[in-house]
Amino acid sequence: MNCDPAQRYHLTLTAAGRRTMHGWWGSETIARGKFVSWVGAYGALPDARITLVDQETGDALAVWPDEV
Question: Which listed site, 4, 23, 55, 60, has its alpha carbon 20 to 30 Å from 13?
């Protein structure tokens, strides 16, 4: 998969079954920091789910809440 390096790491917040927010970062370190920040800020929303994906590889790097 080929992607824009500035948009490699994609963070998505879904709440109550709808995508509420999303953003892209070129740095994995910054994207992971945003992930932690979003969990703290939005984790209490109904049915909140936060996912960080590496757009280049298609791998989910972090998911909250943890998949069971």
Answer: 4
| Contact indicator for 11, 51 with CB cutoff of 8 Å | yes
CA torsion sign for 49, 53, 58, 64 is negative
Residue 1: predicted pLDDT: 58
Q: Record the pTM.
A: 0.90
Helix runs in 1-68, H state only: 28-42
* Closest residue by Cα to residue 9 from 45, 29, 66: 29
Model confidence pLDDT, tens digit, residues 18-67:
999 999 999 999 999 999 999 999 999 999 999 999 999 999 999 999 86
Domain ranges of the chain: 5-64
Question: Do residues 26 and 9 touch, judged by C-beta distance below 8 A?
Answer: yes
